[in-house]
Design a protein that fits this description.
With 241 residues, the protein is an alpha+beta fold. Among the domains are: 101 residues, Homing Intron 3 (I-Ppo) Encoded Endonuclease, Chain A (Alpha-Beta Complex), CATH 3.90.75; 46 residues, no CATH class. The chain is built from nine helices and eight strands. The strands form four sheets. The protein has a two-stranded antiparallel ribbon with strand order 1-6. α7 packs across α9. The radius of gyration is 27 Å and the shape is elongated. Bound molecules: zinc ion (ZN). The site of zinc ion has 7 residues, from loops.
């Protein structure tokens, strides 16, 4: 059974100490891929190996994968130095390719090890989640792997942030510093109770001597929140302080 984690990174050698993973690496690369999987990528020898591990049955039955599997029971197959879903390899051979950004769903049977092209369709992550919900395959509560094997959770020293601290977007690398315009500040925030106009009114009334408690009642917020607004600690981007 393949598990998540740096030592068990599917299809990759363990990282050297201090080395960072290649860009675009997915921790669990069973689903959406960033590169297209083409039928021409799969050698004749690999094709023979692929079919030797599939239990072929009737045209409308599930064709089970008998080889190594991913978490969840998906067939695991090597194409060159890449690891792909066995079903995705079958799909690529039948249809020519699995385009980048797509995954191969078991749209008909919802059976992860199945390698029958007739049971598959191209989709995205959202389609896959809908299929899983529809088939009742979503694992929740005590059946979830994190409850069954809590020791596998990447906690403490095993956490990605400790293993690859250089990958954390800290300080000026953080998205909130790089693209501050994307933050939902002020009126753009879905939970905002005030607007730039009401903030300026509050500040003017406070300057004229009105108390925080009275302003809070008038604008439907707490006295503490009214104080933070009037002192410019919140809504700092609005003038009138
Ligand atoms: Zn099937």
């Amino acid at each position: 059974m393949v598990t998540h984690g740096p030592e068990n990174r599917v299809g990759r050698k363990p990282l050297a100490p201090g080395a960072s993973p290649p860009r675009g690496t997915l921790w669990c690369n069973v689903t959406v891929r960033k590169t297209t999987l083409r039928a021409s990528d799969i050698s004749t020898k690999s094709i023979a190996l692929l079919w030797s591990r599939i239990e072929r049955r009737g045209p409308d039955e599930c064709w089970s994968w008998t080889g190594e599997t991913y978490v969840g029971g998906y067939g695991l197959f090597h194409v060159g130095d890449r690891v792909v879903g066995a079903h995705a390899a079958v799909f690529a051979l039948a249809d020519g390719e699995v385009p980048a950004g797509f995954l191969v769903r078991h749209s008909t049977c919802g059976n992860p090890p199945c390698c029958n092209r007739r049971h598959m369709a191209l989709g995205d992550d959202a389609d896959n989640v809908r299929d899983r919900e529809k088939d009742g395959r979503t694992v929740r509560g005590d059946k979830h792997w994190s409850r069954i094997s809590p020791e596998k959770r990447p906690r403490g020293e095993a956490n990605g942030k400790r293993i690859h601290p250089e990958s954390c977007a800290r300080g000026d690398d953080n998205g909130s510093r790089k693209s501050p315009e994307l933050l939902a500040r002020g009126e753009k925030h879905p939970l905002a109770k005030l607007t730039a106009v009401t903030v300026q009114q509050m500040r003017a009334r406070h300057a004229a001597g009105e108390t925080f408690a009275s302003l809070g009642r008038a604008f439907g917020i707490s006295d503490v929140a009214a104080g933070l607004v009037c002192k410019g600690i919140t809504w700092a981007h609005v003038g009138g302080i």
